[in-house]
Write a structure and sequence with these properties.
Length: about 210
Amino acid sequence: MDACVLLGDVVGSRDLSNRAVFGTSLEAACRSVDEAFADAVIAPATPLKGVDEVGVVLEDWRVVYGVVRRFYEAVHPVRVRFAAATGDIDVGVESGRVPAMDGPAFHRADEMLASVADAGLLFDLAVSESTLDRAIADEVNLLLRWRAGLTERQAEYIRAYERRGTQAAAATDLGVTQQAVSNELRDVGWPFVDRIERRLERTLEEYADAT
């Protein structure tokens, strides 16, 4: 079976002050991914090796950035390195479970994840055209680095705005004024980042259609 394997490695997992609490957050992130991308998920997102890693198998790899972004939103400020690779899965397909699966796509993603760590990056992608894969991965790395640098307050304001869709609704949820939300989003450069993320989503759509 051809699919996209997305593997994640929690940065500094051994140094987490409360692994049990983080484990709860990671499990919630997995459920959120499965619900939001149900049409694209073949094997549900699953914590691996306790809370050190996470994995999910996707039928449609074009949603990969959306999946990664949802993980980042859910476990902030903890960072996770990710590697996404398309290819064959020839073991455990019928199980529908990431831990039971294996194959070239898993091997490729696992090797890439090690390279991501060695290079000090947060993401890599291997789909078809290596040059385009690298360009997309570099863009994702910049976006993830920006998200990782947000304070908890900034991340909370962005989550509220993304969830509700308007500054007024986000302000109501947060118990602040609309101007406060507007100022916070402007100060972190959110309007610009939002445009870049939307352009990235179009790029992934067009790339997938062409392969």
